[in-house]
Design brief:
Layout: E1 3-7, H1 13-23, E2 29-34, E3 38-40, H2 45-49, E4 59-61, H3 62-68, E5 72-75, E6 78-82, E7 87-90, E8 93-96, E9 99-102
Parallel strand pairs: 1-2, 1-9, 2-5
Antiparallel strand pairs: 3-4, 6-7, 7-8
Length: 120
């Protein structure tokens, strides 16, 4: 049995989990670790701003959706990756893996270019 762990449950992590679950036999385990409990489709924010959608229309709770697909969900921050022991360490415990996908998205560095960013 292989254990596939995906850190991140957004536009990269969720499709990776769905594809892994669809591709792998049921004997293999797919787990998603995320520090947030709900998915929010960020590209639809303008629709919310102009009243075409509500926040509820573009968000959902992650755990029940993944459970329906046979994917385990761990709601915790991935504090550390221990590649020598093939495990992700969270406040809720250790999550072992055979294969690890890191899909946490970007961390924007507005300070890298003077004058760039929300504070201008």
């Amino acid at each position: 049995m292989a254990r596939v762990v995906i850190i991140g449950a957004s536009i990269g992590g969720l499709p990776a989990a769905y594809e892994a679950r669809a591709f792998l036999a049921k004997k293999h385990k797919v787990t998603v670790i995320s520090n947030v409990e709900s998915f929010h489709f960020v590209p639809s924010n303008p629709w919310v701003a102009v009243g075409w959608r509500t926040r509820k229309d573009i968000s959902f709770q992650i755990a029940p959706v993944l459970a329906k697909k046979g994917i385990e969900f761990v709601h915790a921050t991935a504090d550390r990756i221990d590649p020598e022991q093939n495990r992700v360490v969270t406040a809720k415990g250790e999550v072992p893996y055979d294969y690890l996908i890191i899909a946490t998205g970007p961390k924007l560095n507005f300070g890298a270019v003077p004058g760039l960013g929300p504070s201008g």
